[in-house]
Amino acid sequence: MTVNLPLPQKDQLKPIKGFQMGIAQAGIKKANRKDLLVMTLTPGSQVAGVFTLNRFCAAPVQVCREHLALDGAQGEIRALVVNTGNANAGTGEQGMQHALETCVALARDLNLNPEQILPFSTGVILEPLPIEKIIAALPAAVADLGEDHWLDAAEAIMTTDTQAKAASMTVQTPLGAVTLTGICKGAGMIHPNMATMLGFIATDAGFAPGLLSGLTQTVADQSFNAITIDGDTSTNDSFIIMATGQSPVRIQSMDDPSYQLVRDALTALARKLAQMIVRDGEGATKFITIEVVGGKTESECRLVAEAVAHSPLVKTAFFASDPNLGRILAAIGYAGITDLDVNHVQMWLGDVWVAKDGGRNPDYQEADGQRVMQAAEITVKIDLGRGSAQQTMWTCDLSHDYVSINADYRS
Amino acid sequence: MTVNLPLPQKDQLKPIKGFQMGIAQAGIKKANRKDLLVMTLTPGSQVAGVFTLNRFCAAPVQVCREHLALDGAQGEIRALVVNTGNANAGTGEQGMQHALETCVALARDLNLNPEQILPFSTGVILEPLPIEKIIAALPAAVADLGEDHWLDAAEAIMTTDTQAKAASMTVQTPLGAVTLTGICKGAGMIHPNMATMLGFIATDAGFAPGLLSGLTQTVADQSFNAITIDGDTSTNDSFIIMATGQSPVRIQSMDDPSYQLVRDALTALARKLAQMIVRDGEGATKFITIEVVGGKTESECRLVAEAVAHSPLVKTAFFASDPNLGRILAAIGYAGITDLDVNHVQMWLGDVWVAKDGGRNPDYQEADGQRVMQAAEITVKIDLGRGSAQQTMWTCDLSHDYVSINADYRS
Fold first, then answer.
1. What is the CATH number of the domain that holds B309?
2. Which one, out of A212, A253, B6, B114, has a CA that is 20 to 30 A from the CA of A316?
């Protein structure tokens, strides 16, 4: 089940001028399933990415990093290729060869250099990529290229996702309108830096050289790096922003008044997409927002938010709609702030003040906690009482279905 | 269910001269249940403890620390009192009062000073301790004091444990024989520093002043601090070693030949008790040993062992007996060794070499992995290939029953 996650509607996903998608069925893990996506960008486009920090990062992640580093020198990035059903991770030298062969094959079909291609894989780790199936299906994906294939693209990158994830947005700037559309996938092995997750956003804005890379990191930190489902940082996570520059809006610098507008729109879209992953979290029945305020630094707020969001005991209590809120205090206590004075800590569950000055609020009634716990969307607010920094994370509960899904995933 | 955890037999639990236990039913959370334990020590005994690092540590933990710091000044520690059914944590100033009142009441019954008592609580967090029930039941526990009550004591400290945990051992030293007996409790909220767990070991050895405290930390690090069930460090964890000095063995210094023998025996007993907690881990169907070798430092080996032991994806794969071993590589990769060269990493599942030089071992057959995964006890060995440090941890799988137990715990 999902938590307040409507199905994306095809007519609400706006095409981005200069950006095309083509889908094919390569039969990588299962037959008769969209599992291959090719995306192409018009000449002059810009691409930036943020990738997993996992040291066992997948071969395609390594190739993406290399090709983005060469961007410009060997011709700009002009195409992306994504397969599901196999992560091409923990596959050693052969995995690298396979990722490169995928680029070579697509480059031939599109008349580009292999270095102009970014490859992505998602699925099972430690199994060889069935490279022949992918190469054989690439021409069909290329033949399918079109601007209006967002929904098909979102479906083609799904693994344990129960539904496709996509969203669109338009923002007006002094220089004109900018359109943004994005897709993402992910439901388990989700944790900052980053989730088992792929996210792609295309926009028709243009950027002066060097701007997009920092912007992509900023957007990622406020969206995909602020969600956790199970605390497992995957080998394949990638978040990509692609800017075709086909609208009248070209942003020259961070001081440009349009910069902030477009950055905020990208952040809002990325956050919406990231939250869709949580709403479709493996086995999720609750969507939980953890707001930590009153910290000395953002990073210590993040430590606390992660500890709470990550605790199996907190997550099973949410699943049970049981206000067993001492478990949240315990998580705050072990989050790693060694000089935390718990006597200054306050906690609210929704609008209910539960913990006051480090202990149970004398006015707290179990029935009030129970009422809030019944809701499908719950906010936990924690005030550390030692500064003005804050950080918000999003997570879901831990249910029987999480265990079922992950115990059965490969069978 | 439990994993290879036989019930303790009363006649195998050896009395420790100078150490007595008394049990009562205080009705703290449920009626007709042993939930109060008093332990007394003969004059001249020594006591040392290791406690949770959780900043939201329970009131009794704070009182224990204070009373151990006063040890000697106000008279030595002579008694311990443990209640289950309520953790007296997240209870603020009132909780501290309750912990102290418990000491005052027991001191009156035993003709001691309150500072000679160590209090312990375990159970639900954030609810007021029913202090009247405890005080009312103390005389019954005191009346019950005897040397032969180890099994009853082990039963009296259980919470979500499905069975009592106790063990005994005798070690011969050049100075004579030393007897050690211990009990512990814990099944969830289990993670280093420390688990939701109480552990008490009594021995008739004696120690020169100052020796027992460091020894207790050493023993804890090799036992209770090397297990994890769900990664939640509790508010109440306490591990206590009590030495009555009633045997002929009195250890004068760390250079004493008997020191190492007694230390090793204490470590072996504590490890056995700690492993009992994992074997009775909430919902556990598998007992898993994570051996990390070839690290630069013990602490980096520990990071890797914890990441693997803690990963819900790894743990659900063990539950499913599914050799989805890429999940282990992913956990190694995100454990936090930022300069890890994965090309030097090897991994074995039992006797099967799965990952070779960072990739899938070409000789690895899925059927071999499957065979090992079927066993109730599984060892994962990871060689980081960058040094000679090593660390071992013990954990269990993540099953449907874990979710059930923790979703239903309070109802």
1. 3.10.20.340
2. B6
Which of B94, B230, B325 is nearest residue A312 as measured by Cβ atoms? Answer: B230
The whole-angstrom separation of Cα B301 and Cα A220 is 30
Beta strand segments in A204-330, E? 206-207, 238-243, 250-251, 287-295
Sign of the Cα pseudo-torsion (A54, A55, A60, A66, in order): positive
Q: Count the domains in chain B.
A: 2
Q: Which residues of A are annotated as catalytic?
A: 196
| CA-angle at B121, arms to B118 and B127, nearest 5° | 135
Residue with tokens 């599901």: A84
Q: pLDDT-based confidence at A196, cuts 50/70/90?
A: low
Alpha carbon distance B374, B3 (integer Å): 13
Which whole number is the average pLDDT over A291-304? 95
Asked if A260 and A300 sit in the same domain, the reply is no
* Residue B119 dihedral angles phi and psi, to the nearest 5°: -100, 145
Q: Radius of gyration over alpha carbons of chain B, in Å?
A: 22
Range of the domain at B360: 287-408
ipTM above 0.85, yes or no: no
Q: Which residues of B touch A382 (CB under 8 A)?
A: none
Instruction: Write down the pLDDT at residue B123.
Output: 87
Same domain? For B37 and B105 the reply is: yes
Strands (E), B209-339: 238-243, 250-251, 287-295
- For residues B359 and A94, the answer to whether their CB atoms sit within 8 Å is yes
* A164 SS3 class: coil
Same domain as B268, residue B200: yes
Q: What is the pLDDT of residues B313-362, one digit of tens each?
A: 888 889 888 887 888 998 898 888 989 999 999 999 999 999 999 888 99
Q: Return the residue in B62, B86, B125 with the most chain A beta carbons within 10 A, the one to mutate for interface testing.
A: B125
A214 touches B: beta carbon within 8 Å: no
CATH of the domain at B96: 3.60.70.12
Q: Rounded to an integer, what distance in angstroms lies between the CA atom of residue B229 and that of residue B190?
A: 5
Specify the pairing of strand B377-383 against strand B346-349: antiparallel
pLDDT exceeds 80 at position B218? yes
Longest dimension (CA), chain A: 71
Among candidate residues A323, A7, A186, A224, the one with its CA nearest the CA of residue B90: A323
- Per-residue exposure over B169-193, b if at least 16 CB sit within 10 Å of its own CB, e if not: bebebebeebbbbbbbbbbbbbbbb
B365 and B267 Cβ atoms separated by less than 8 Å: no
Backbone angles phi, psi at B307, to 5 degrees: -60, -45
What tens digit of pLDDT does each residue of B376-411 get?
A: 999 999 999 999 999 999 999 888 887 887 776 553
Residues B122 and B165 placed together within one structural domain of the fold = yes
> CA-CA distance, B217 to B352, in Å (whole number)?
35
Note whether A324 contacts B191, CB cutoff 8 Å. Answer: no
Residues B232 and B370 occupy one common structural domain: no
Provide the percentage of residues in chain B whose pLDDT is more than 90. 66
